[in-house]
Amino acid sequence: MALTVTLDPHGEQLVAACLRTGRYHSPEEVVARALESLAESPDEAIAQILGLRPEVVEELRRQARARGRAVKSYAAGLLEEAARLRAACDETASPPPSTDVLEAIERLKGFGRSHGLSLGDATIRQLREEARP
């Protein structure tokens, strides 16, 4: 079966870099070896794609084994959970203060400095958060 594959510019650069090493004689050979590597060791391929350190990969393997899951599906689940948590944090995070608020804070700071006023241990941010309904 013949298959035509179109690579993006980054993929083309990767293939060209592999060819320059002299270990491969054609783009087809580079792609074939890459596919063989994926088939031989999917865990290592995932680690390489994500840039994981070996000790992290080993810990993922250990945790996946303890749960009776494949490393690939376990790691994917962790990433999905992290993305959901991040999205939830982003939804509940306070919007950044407006320019008017920032300018008012600076005026208050200047007024406090020039009149020797102090908030004690409190910060303007803490006071602002406490004042929110």
Characterise the protein shown here.
This protein has helices at 9-20, 27-40, 42-50, 54-66, 71-92, 99-114, 124-131. It has 133 residues and is an all-alpha fold. The protein folds into three domains: 7-40, no CATH class; 53-93; 99-131. It is elongated and about 80 Å long. 2% of the residues are buried. The model has no long low-confidence stretch (mean pLDDT 77).
Number of helical regions: 7
- Taking Cα atoms only, what radius of gyration do you get, to the nearest Å? 27 Å
**Estimated structural class:** mainly alpha
How many separate domains? 3
Question: What is the general shape?
Answer: elongated
Which blocks of ≥5 consecutive residues have pLDDT under 50? none
Order of helices and strands: HHHHHHH
Q: Mean of the pLDDT scores?
A: 77
Please bin the fraction of helical residues. Answer: over 70%
User: Major sheet: size, sense and barrel closure?
Assistant: none
Please count the beta strands (DSSP E, at least 2 residues each). Answer: 0
Which strand-content bin applies to the residues? under 5%
The termini sit apart by 66 Å
